[in-house]
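Slide 14.
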Amino acid sequence: MESPPHRNLSRCAKPGVAERTFTSGRPRKDLVDWKCLLNKYTHRSCNKVFCQPWQKCVDGTCVCKLPYMCPKSGTPVCATNGREFPTYCHQKSFECLNPATKFSNNGTCTEEGKFNVSLSYGSTDAEGIVQVKLVDQDEKMFICKKSWSMTEANVACFDLGFQQGALVIQRRFNIPGSLRINSTECLHVRCRGVETSLSECIFTKRRTNTYQGLADVVCYTKDADSSTNQSFQCVNGKHIPQESVCNGVNECGDQSDELCCKGCQGKAFFCKSGVCIPEQYECNGEVDCITGEDESGCKEETEETEILTPNMDTERQRIKSLLPKVSCGVKRNTHTRRRRVVGGKPADVGDYPWQVAIKDGERITCGGIYIGGCWVLTAAHCVRPSRASHYQVWTALLDWLNPNAELRVRTVSRVIVHENYNGATYQNDIALIEMKKFRGRKECELFNSVPACVPWSPYLFQPNETCIISGWGRERDNQKVYSLRWGEVNLIGNCSQFYANRYYEKEMQCAGTNDGSIDACKGDSGGPLVCKDINNVTYVWGIVSWGENCGKPEFPGVYTRVANYFNWISNHVGRSLISQHNV
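Slide 15: predicted structure.
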């Protein structure tokens, strides 16, 4: 059957857009982030990758959703056990919980219609020439070598029960002369690599004039293990050549060879989160880097091929589009930025619509960040649960001596301070404020406020990236400030050099400028350090926590690293309120 035009996008270069990095040969030692490898990240690590639509991100791991959590829209599919499911998502969710129940075909189950993959002409059941029987075909067919790569080979081996995927795809097997066929009699297959069965991949026919050979594979077994000093050990225990690491190809089968990179070798696209993805994922219409730059500055093209099987990759993308979405981090209007927190000019209405002020009695004592619903993030050292009734949350405030018309005042229902907050070290310096709803209202309606997005991964933003702080804190000379000010600062790595023995990297983030001219100061506590991604979506990356000597370069500001507390926040406010991805 003729397929609809396949959406393909190509890069249209733009200033500031991340491009590929190329190297050759074995990966240099500085190509791999060895510290990152200790985390044992895989394709199920949602700090590094997006979960599949039938999974959700919990404590940094993609776990199975229950089938009822899938969108109900879709066509029925058949599983290998003969059971029908209402949608592909329902089947994959069930398979996630029961791995033996794999996808068989799109549509209803029939006795004749069963997909099958097998290996022939090998000396063991783990090797040979690949053959498949499609659901609507009577005979088995070979796969063309031209379209065969480690990605497809891994899926074939998964399908055959070899959990670590493929070992090699270039071994020769003796084929009887009667089976020397031309390339028009074999199938081309394309997999994404997330499939567990070749039946989920796309099979096509393309006419060629030359013999291309047939696809073969040797699946990975412990007996085939070739561990050497020059090999890389995957998280799943598989060993691959060192030169295969950080090349965009999922040689490991669990993607662990591509998730801790400082750059990419070969024709791969480098995500700033430290992930190498295949070059064909760039501008393919789907965001693959959690930081989004693989789909920035692309233009659309179309391509037509004769597809013999339903395109389940397109169906997977369609399911993703039906999942609930959170609206956050995008201002309703924009204004010209002004100078800085220390010594700057006042902000305009709408510049920082997530910024709130916390008033205790007669004074504004701290800042806060609106994150949606009735919830505000702030620093633990700013609030006490016992004083909840004394606090007010002021939203859309510009100048607290001359309140603007957009200002709204909310009373507080409760305060939740992190249970492991340490007032001596400022560890876990984070708290939640729940505002009271108006009588008869289900939600808190804050017309002049926009929530900042809550980051789920510590890899969304990196050292040296420019972010923004804002607040009503004091000037360098301790003068009071009454109007909202802002400033640009750079994220700083390895802040232990400034604060030895009292900086905790997992829980804290440093930010400042080379000359110390921009900094948070007393009174900014609890306020936001926000960063924008490639699509101009704003995330609250830090909460103003502590520091010394405002405005000095050797004493940068220290912020609570919000990504470290995603699960703590979601457990209190509800995952659906803040889950921008991996719902």
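Speaker note: The longest strand covers residues 363-372.
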